[in-house]
Amino acid sequence: MSFDESSADAGGQGHWGLIDRIYETGQSPKSWPLLLDSLFNSFSFGESIDSAASTVPGTSLQELWPHFERALALNSYIDEVASNTAEMAHADFPYPLVLINDAFDIVYRNAEGVRPFPPQSGIEVNGQKVSITSSDVANRLSAFVRASHGGNPDRTVSPLCHDEQSNNHLVAISLPREPGRNLVALGWLDPVDQGRLTTEHFRQLYNLTDAESNVLDLILRGQETDEVAHSLSIASPTVRAHLKSIYRKTATAGKSDLIQTIRCGPALLRRFLAPRTEMYADTKEAKNRRNQTVPLSDGRQLGFAEFGARNGTPILLVHNLIGSRLQLPTGEENLIAQGSRLIVPDRPGVGLSSPQPHPSLRLWSNDIGELADHLGLNQFDMVGSSMGAIYGLALAHNQPNRIRRFAMVSCLPEIAGGKMTRNILPSTRRLFQLARYAPSLLKTILRFIVRKGPDAYLDELVCDLPQLDQRLYEDPAFHRMMVSAVRETLRQGAASIFDDIKVMANPWGFSPESIRVPVHYWHGQDDTMAPHSMVQTFADRIPDCTQHLVEKESHWLLFRQWNAIVAELLR
Q1: What's the rounded mean pLDDT across residues 381-396?
Q2: CATH number of 194-263
Q3: Which helix (H) or strand (E) holds 562?
Q4: Which of 29, 247, 244 has the alpha carbon at shortest distance from 154?
Q5: How confident is the model over 143-185, as pLDDT tens digits?
Q6: Fold of 284-570
Q7: What angle do CA 243, 186, 161 make, to 5 degrees?
Q8: In 190-295, at which residue ranges do the beta strands (DSSP E only) sit?
């Protein structure tokens, strides 16, 4: 039966309202919860049915399918643009910034770019079009755009004009995507108020050597070639050789050009790359340890990472739904201080791990058994958080002789058969219901959700977290760690997320009474994603279970209570 426009209801939840919501979600994945609302208003996903039944006459999932596919195709161009503008879209960037194509159409602007450029910039923004009021600026910009869109620009940054009164520069920045389809950013910038660049910035921004960075630093301070040679105690010909290399790496033709380009260069967009701490160790050995694989007996491979003390007490960490082997609960220095050897495997289809054609908790347990054999581990402690706690329970059930103690952190409740779905968050409940009753539709929705990449996806995820959990992301090192972890989650697409949700939504294949491993149950009293009252019913049935209910804690207590959890495990 075809759609009947007259059947759409006044609230926009009928046929055409639902189709409109699909395309809206395609352009803005953050609206996917509204799409779920519309779908559940149009279809009946009961707790005891095996298929979705339409509550609106004439509506079927098959008829909606082409709209989902077209919405995803429409979204692809938006994704391409967004992936090249994420850094410049940073809310802290305090200057007007617009992106244009070769027709001078605006394809993106930041918050400051909504305002008009000053008259002295020579740029006017009219709707979605940029026009040039200065012939000099027009000629320079046209030449720069032609070079950029030819695929071989002689530089990535070009100052177009300078206003002496405000000391601001109009700067063009090339953002290469592919030959003939590049974008150019226009910014009205004040380089002085950004502070002084350092030799560390020169090394990172322009790939200069230490010696070249020192020469450039003194040139920017106003020294001539002989003065630089005297200051650095090197010969003048050596300084000139360094300058020649600097000109080549920065695509400049002389000192004046060099100074102007550096002062208006990419550092303005990168916010000076201030010294920062990281949760990951930065040695070559540490990088190799967090990107390992082991071949499995069925021909697949399992990716895993190791952190902390190489000969420390082995602890297996089972990552949560949106996680991977790169999800660290604490910094590596702290792990070393604890004497912990943290082992974090990618689940099937995540990061470096091959997909499992028929994923199940039992088969995943077999994979971990092979990993333990590969690492020579007869026994180890284990921590699992959120959905990772369910996989940890399965391993404790299937291979109890391997596990000494298990920390079950912020575990999600048992929902198979829909028994407990009424009390969990509506958005979470609907995902699990779709996994059971409309798996193909869930796959499409997940493609919407992950399409914007790790940064955008994480930003949207954080907005839905309780305030206590949101504050974790105020630490830049933690945020960068999570972006790296989510990037690995999405490396192979959304299939692994779908598999995890489906595994949890169906019977787990074991009962809590069958767990023979000592379990430490950690849960936040204020956890809204997995309310303690629901999970405790399950935990009470585990024979050897020590319960730790933490006051004023939320779902992501793993990252705040790691030391306490490990201390309890290793006691």
Answers
A1: 96
A2: 1.10.10.10
A3: helix 562-570
A4: 247
A5: 777 766 555 544 566 778 877 777 677 877 766 544 444 677 7
A6: Rossmann fold (3.40.50)
A7: 60
A8: 292-295
Cα dihedral 216, 217, 218, 220 sign: positive
Query: Could you tell me which residues come within 8 angstroms of residue 93 by beta carbon, excluding any fewer than 6 positions away?
Result: 110, 112, 269, 271
Cα–Cα distance for residue pair 63/185, rounded to 1 Å? 41
Buried b (16+ CB within 10 A) or exposed e, 63-78: ebeebbeebbeebeeb
Alpha helices in 464-545 (DSSP H): 467-470, 476-489, 495-505, 532-539
Residue 405: HSE in the Cβ half-sphere, 13 Å Cα cutoff: 15
CA nearest to 318, candidates 411, 399, 400, 391? 391
Model confidence pLDDT, tens digit, residues 191-209: 544 445 677 767 766 778 8
**Least confidently predicted of 123-132, 184-193, 475-484, 520-529:** 184-193
CA angle 329, 333, 334 (to 5 degrees): 55
Alpha helix segments (H runs only) across 49-198: 61-85, 135-149
Check residue 112 and report its DSSP letter. Answer: G
* Confidence category of residue 8, pLDDT binned at 50, 70, 90: very low
Q: Identify whether the C-beta of residue 182 lies closer than 8 Å to the C-beta of residue 175.
A: yes
Residues 344/371, Cβ–Cβ less than 8 Å: no
Handedness of CA 568, 569, 570, 571 (dihedral sign): positive
**3-state SS class at 262:** helix
Question: Using alpha carbons only, how large is the chain's radius of gyration in Å?
Answer: 28
Region for 249 from its dihedrals, namely left if φ exceeds 0, alpha if ψ lies in -120 to 50, beta otherwise: alpha
Cα–Cα nearest to 125, from 166, 167, 156, 96: 96
**383 close to 319: Cβ distance less than 8 angstroms:** no
Domain coordinates in residue numbering, the chain: 5-85, 194-263, 284-570
Please tell me the pTM assigned to this model. 0.60
